[in-house]
Amino acid sequence: MECLEWINDELKQVHDKNLFRYLTELQSGQSPEVVIDGKEYLLLASNSYLGLSVDPRVVQAASDALRKYGTGSGGSRLVSGSSDLHRELEEKIANFKNTESAILFSSGYLANIGTISSLVGPEDFIYSDELNHASIIDGSRLSKAKLRIYPHLDLEELDSLLTKDKQSGKKLVVTDTVFSMDGDLVDLQKLTKICEKHNAMLMVDEAHATGVLGERGSGATEHFNVENKVPIVMGTLSKAVGSLGGYIAGNRELIDYIRNRVRSYIFDTSLPAPSLAASIKSIEIISSEKEPREHLWKMIGMFKEGLEDLGYDVIASDSAIVPILTGDPEPTLRMAERLREEGVFTPAVRPPSVAPGKCRIRSSLMSSHTVQHIEKALSAFKNVR
To answer: Which domains does the chain have, with CATH numbers?
Structure first.
């Protein structure tokens, strides 16, 4: 159509900059070895950090719920889409995160944009790490609050910004705990003290920390022993939990407020029963089984050490995310293609997911990876090097 002809020019620019995105279709589940175009590859690109999306116990729980409740929830939570499974999962999350209450969203993205934009408005302030997830950025924009961006993990600058803002209005500090592209970790001990000093609300995004950090796998708030000092805890059920959805955990008043004010909760169709049952079972497994998490950390250490020995520029991380810095889009794409020729699937990450000049191969490990898998991966990286 003539009115859309401008799109071709836009797409050409994306192509010319080596930033065009293609879908890679997996023909199997999120196991260490996956099938793509009929060929088997070692998977180093999944956020299913504990391999629970294909765990037989989790699959069985989802299957049982499918037979009992059907495929869809039929409506929003406030109409006909609330079931006993929703309540059970919310109670399970609250216990897991050591909070009074919790509330479910259909995705982490909806949890962030809805909650942030309802907590503050034009007369208020948001303080956001420059590398926060896109959902935090979008929620901040929707709120129309005064936005203060501080350099990545620079808590001294955050403290300075909070000190300078003397105007009345609520102050919300929001940050990832584990950052999705760098895999590094914010110091929550220090951050909670800064927020208490300035009477600022603190909201943390535990998406990539859940299941990986903490004695019980609860996340960074447990890891830093600040569970009673972070009033607003967001997380996802789609990564280490291996299912679908997002949540906010906190005190009962916060959850009641969200239930009555947040549009991305009120007007959204609720999660289906199979996803709820899968999440319930996964959280039970994460809380009770330390061995998969301990094995995951052994594989992370082996992989990072091997890459550094090969001379790769590995970004320091504190998680299952292992980024290898490559610089510009073209060599990053070439490296990802060469790795795939070696039987390893780990994608090239380019702007806008990362800043220009910071392209990378973003590898991520799962507890279901074995020593043999890591050896195969390092052999591929050696050949590509």
So the answer is: 21-50+290-384 (3.90.1150.10), 56-288 (3.40.640.10)
